[in-house]
Design goal:
disordered N terminus; 16 helices; mainly alpha; 81% helix; globular
Length: 459
């Protein structure tokens, strides 16, 4: 029983920092690669075979989806940190109490947000200035995606719990199942191959929904079969309730983290709203360039998630020396990995963009120009992401939110909108390195001189 109860439990408070961080971050990185590869392949099918208008439609829809995911990201992240700190302190009872309450809270929010998104997707697309020729396709695609939001959100919630417990391998395996299913189903449902109906752009959305639903069911079955150590067992179902103390902590700490993601995603919506006014070629180019920049951000996001989980457990165990070394190791890993990816895309700029866009025309020329101006700055983004992950793992959530707001809504968005009339889209592209530089400077100063180490997730 003791062996079963500890199934999946990983101690991030022991062993060499570099080796532990590397092997914990690796499945997270591979998972991020899989997700972006999945999105890229879907974009290739849509862009190459359904046209640039369809690709513009999915670009707008994906920005909305990121915005909705961001709206409940904070609750999941707060849960991850609470679980990690309690595991580091070897308090399994409190960890399960967090899991039970946050599961009920998270599922309720996901259903509400999915319903709102489904009902008002057309209004949101209109507000975003989606090109008129892309709106019918975008509505069809978006409504199907929103119908699957509860499955997607619950799936991601479980993944975050597992990573907070120190298990990054299990989420990767089931993400692999989801991605393979989506890749296989996409052409079948888009073109109506074999017994499958021809659904066009709606088929791309349906393939994602089906893949995520199947993977979620298999993941839940696996957790029960292996008697996972954080699984609520008979006699513990009373923990599936709205515990006021934990709800208060999730809201107090989770909302700022969620707002931080909303600040990021809303700035993305504001940017694509501006880019849309320059026509479908610009929108398609921006969508394709974003697909590539996503890959450069992957090491930073994977390492940031890993250092946050490691820091949370070590904070719970009171091992502050390991927290500091984890942060420095994470920055080094990010600099090397993100830098290599950026260099590769610089070398193969046209070839990479031609996966998503026609090899001739205005769109690919715009995309190449975007990459030349912005790719190097994502290395700076990684430094900020890693340090902010460590800072948030204590419960210090307000300053990272403020830094993000300043970088995006005080610097990037005004710079883009006010200077676009003079310099055109170049104002948008240059806003990326400028805002990333400001964010890194502010975050480093707070990490070095701020009082973030004194923060608490719960009083």
């Amino acid at each position: 029983m003791a062996e079963a109860a500890s199934k999946g439990k990983v101690r991030l408070t022991e062993g060499p920092i570099g080796k532990t961080l590397f092997f914990f971050a690796l499945p997270v990185l591979f998972g991020n690669v899989l997700q972006s590869l999945n999105g890229s392949i879907n974009s290739i099918w849509v862009g190459k075979f359904l046209g640039e208008t369809a690709l513009a439609a999915t670009s707008n829809a994906n920005n909305i989806m990121f915005f909705l995911l961001s709206s409940i990201f904070g609750i999941g992240m707060a849960t991850t940190i609470l679980v990690g700190q309690n595991i580091g302190a070897n308090n399994m009872g409190e960890a399960k109490r967090v899991v039970g309450t946050s599961a009920v809270f998270f599922c309720s929010l996901s259903i509400l947000i999915g319903l709102i998104g489904f009902l008002f997707s057309a209004d949101i697309l209109q507000w975003m200035n989606t090109p008129p020729d892309a709106i019918p396709l975008a509505i069809a695609y978006t409504r199907i995606i929103f119908a699957g939001v509860p499955f997607l959100f619950v799936y991601n919630f479980i993944m975050m719990i597992l990573r907070g417990s120190g298990d990054s391998k299990t989420p990767f395996y089931f993400l692999l199942i989801s991605v393979v299913l989506d890749i296989v189903l996409n052409p079948l449902l888009i073109f109506g191959i074999g017994p499958f109906p021809e659904m066009g752009i709606s088929g791309s959305a349906f393939s994602t929904l089906i893949a995520q639903f199947i993977s979620l069911i298999l993941l839940v079955v696996y957790l029960f079969k292996t008697n996972y150590f954080l699984l609520l067992r008979k006699g513990e179902y009373h923990l599936l309730r709205f515990d006021r103390e934990i709800i208060a902590a999730l809201i107090k700490k989770g909302l700022p983290m969620g707002f931080q993601m909303i600040v990021v995603s809303s700035s993305g919506l504001a940017l694509i709203n501006l880019v849309n006014t320059f026509g479908s070629d610009a929108t398609a180019a921006y969508g394709a360039a974003t697909q590539l920049s996503n890959y450069i951000q992957m090491p930073a996001m994977a390492i940031g998630a890993a250092v946050s989980s490691m820091a949370a457990q070590n904070i719970g165990a009171g091992k502050w020396d390991r927290v500091t070394r984890t942060a420095m190791t994470g920055i080094l890993f990010n600099f090397v990995m993100s830098g290599i990816l950026a260099a590769l895309i610089y070398v193969f700029n046209r070839e990479a963009l031609s996966l998503f866009l026609p090899t001739e025309g205005d769109a690919i020329a715009i995309g190449m120009h975007i990459n030349r101006l912005t790719l190097w700055a994502f290395v700076l983004f990684g430094i900020n992401f890693v340090l902010a992950g460590v800072i948030r793992s204590t419960g210090a959530v307000m300053v990272p939110l403020l830094v993000t707001f300043i970088a995006l809504w005080v610097i990037r968005i005004p710079m883009s909108y006010y200077l676009a009339n003079v310099y055109g889209l170049d104002a948008v592209w240059w806003s990326f390195p400028v805002s990333f530089t400001i964010a890194v400077i502010l975050t480093v100063l707070y990490y070095m001189f701020g009082n973030w180490k004194k923060a608490k997730m719960m009083s």
